[in-house]
Structures are given as structure tokens and as C-alpha cells.
chitinase (Clostridium gasigenes), 509 residues
Amino acid sequence: MSKKFNKILSLVIVAMLSILFVPSIKTKAATNLGDRLLVGYWHNFINGAGIIKLSEVSNSWDVINVSFGETFGDKAVVELHPVYDEVEFIKDIKNLQLKGKKVVLSLGGAEGAIKISTESDRQKFMTSVVGLIEKYGFDGIDIDLEGGSGMILQSGDTDFRNPTTPQIVNFIKSIKELDKKYGSNFIISMAPELSYVQGGIIAYANNWGAYLPLIHGVRDQLDYLQVQHYNSGGNLCLDGNTYKEGTADFHVSMIDMLLKGFPIGGNKNNMFPPLRQNQIVIGVPSSTPSAGSGYTAPAEMKKALDYLIKGQSFGGQYKMEGNGYPELRGMMTWSINWDVKYNSEFINNYRPYFDALPKLNDALKKASISSSDVVNGDYELTVNIPSRNTATSYKVIEGITAIASGTLKPSLTEAQVITNKIINKQIGSYKYTVVLTDEKGQAVTSSELVVTVKDPNENPKPSVDNYDSVHPYTFGDIVIYNGKEYKSQGWWVVGITPGTNDGVWKPMK
């Protein structure tokens, strides 16, 4: 074979690899939403919090969730009966929208069971929801299905990527249809209870983790997720501890799970992928009476917010890796009515807090690259290009050779993800980096990823790879950090830097 032919063949192989790296970009987003959101639930019913009209809602709210669209006789048909005069109700919605507010129909709630386990039920659900959206002019829907709504994993439904529970499958299909029908400015949000989401780290059955296939199935349509950080007691987190709800450690650890990803049922080979920063809204009660448990005093909550958004530690037990999540979207509360009754504590504290945050600016930012586990020489590389990035092109480098390149859309408010399956690699170690370049020719290079393909017949040995902040480690794993070896002391360790906590990473002699 001639050298010229070898060169041509090499170029063809590189070109083929480049084609395999395909950016997966979330193009749908409610583009008329702000970078920071305060979301409040408005009672369309009478209880101890009292009645307020939509016209009386403070201008400090960004999104008002009308609570709730419910079912009565037929559990697939959603109904809404305004708590005050319907003509005035519709007028008030329009006036809020003229002020730049978004008014969303929240579906379900604690008592509003919605069940669509058949295609016939799904069609009735869609007809009823579309009718309400068009009658009242809602800006979107919020999925708030709780215990009575049948959001329960059926026996044998074990893969969140390929759910088989009819209720979940039909909701995924319905949300995608609504998103397609109403377009990019139609809001899709969710407000699940904590056990349905982060509870998936404990188990994946019944209600534990039951929202995960729904979230994953519509992650490209989902504008924001507002998990209820209340009425839960607490939950296992990435450092293996359980923190009491209502504390800064609890809020930080729960959000860190969503933005780092976490193992389903503790299985590190079955990871739930992280969401984007701007998809996360923290759900808290506005006052002690508004929830059974989980109220967080503003001073304590602001400790969590400063750590999460600004990277400013408050000296708590839970430790995050990196400099925080500056694009965290905001906060949600149950509820506007309870907040009014208790001197508007929520809105008076958190509106000034979020308004004072620095404006989010576009910049050239480094990509990150990670790998799946290696199986018989096969693995998948994932490149994450952060949102608000001015990069216009990328190159994926193996060693010193570019194995993929392409163009990027600059300044998107959404992250861009590029994946590729590497097949039949020979035994050895392979180094990968990603170079991003902007229109001015400025370039930034990611941290190096080392992927090791081992002899399948070789006796297993403890890992001595360089420490990776996004890789999950189990008890006994050994890593190298700053030239020193450390041994993991936890059953699940991610995001805790060796040398910062000897109880998690034990220095080896």
C-alpha cells in the first residue's frame, strides 16, 4: 500500500469520525423568559391563606402558576373553574401578560389526580388541556403530578431511558406534542416531590425516581425543573450523607445532584445525566404553615444561594467542586397566597437578591469532555460546550491529532452537547482534549481526559488514574491528585477534591 494511499485513507477515517460527532443542541427554549426567575403558585381555591385575585399579585413575580388544572369524574379530562368571576379572571391574566409576567397552568397538585394510561385517555387529556390553554391564554404548563396521579413505576420498568409505564410514556408524548404545537415561547416546567427525582439515588421503583424518565424524555423541551425541597425529611446525596431539609447543606446537596448527575439506585454504571444550570429552580415553602416541613429562613437560604450561585462557601459540611453555578435560574415557592398572608417574606427577600446578581454575559469558555466506561475497547465521548459561549468552532483532539471538528452556534442560552462512540480501540491509554475557537481566532483548551483500554484478561487492579471531578468513585478506588495518591473512603464520592477531606479521601503512604 503506497504512502499516498495511506494518507488518503487516514483523512477519510478522520472525516468519518468527524461526521460521528454530531452536536445535539436544545433549540427549544422560552426565549422571552428572563435569566432569573421567581415562580409562585397562586391558589385557585379557598383555604387558610385566603383569596387574592390575579390583579392583586405583586409585580415582583416573574411566573404565576395557576393552581390547579384538576380532574373530577374522568381522570383524563382536566378542568379549571376560576375561584372568582371568569370574565375578570381572563382579563387579569391578560393584564399580567401585558406587564411581562407569565401565567402558567399547573396540572395536578396534591389532590388533582390525572391518569392517562391509554391512548384514548391521552387524547382526552390533550383535548382538555389545549382547550384550557386557548380559552384562558396560558403561557405554558407546569406538571405537578403527586402521589394520587399514578406517577408510579410499574413492575419491570427499570430503565429511565426507555420507560414502559404507560402513564409516563403518554405524558412524554403529550408534552412533546404541546411543545411542538405552541412553539419556542411555550413554557414547560415541572414541580415534582423530592422522592420522585433525587430519591432515585436510593432506589428506582414505585415512586422513587419515578419522574426521572419523564424529565429525561423531555429534557430538550423542559424549560425548568422546580423540585419541592419540602415535605421530604431529607435525602441521600452525592457525598453519602443525608442532610436535614430546611438547611443550607440540604439545598446545596440536592441541587448539586441535579447539576452533576447521580447514580440510579447507587449504581455508578447507571447515571442520570446532569441538567443545565438554567433548567434549575429551587422550590421552597414561603412560610412555615404553607408546608408540612422544610421551611427555610431567608438567612439560611441565602447561605445556600451564595454557595450555589457565587461559589462562596458558608463552611457547611457538604462540599461542592468548582466555583458554583452562576446560571442557576431562580426559586419557586408554595405559595403566593401564603406569602401575602405572612408579610411577603419570600418575595421581599429573594427579589432583591436575584436582581442584585451580576448580569450573565457571553464569553469564550472551556468545554469539558468525559467518557463512559470502556467495554471491550468501546466507549463514548461526551463534549459539553457551556451556554453563553462565544465559540464558533470546535476540535476534538486525540493525542496531537484532530479526530473531529465542526462549527458551533455562538451565544446560545443553552448548552451544546457533542457525542461520539469510539469502537474497537486497542489496549493502551488515549488522551483527549477539546479546543474551542471564537470568530477572533482566540482559543481555549479543555482539561485533558485520559481513557485507558485494558486487557480484558488482566486481573483487576485498583484504579490509579488522575482524579476526575465529575467521575463517581466507590470505596477503595485510588486516584492521583497533585502527584499524591488517595484512597476513597466513601461508597459514592463525586466532586470532592482529594486533600480537602481526609474522611473522604485518605492519603496513601
Summary: The chain has a mean pLDDT of 89. The longest strand covers residues 428-438. The CA atoms of residues 50 and 416 lie 45 Å apart.
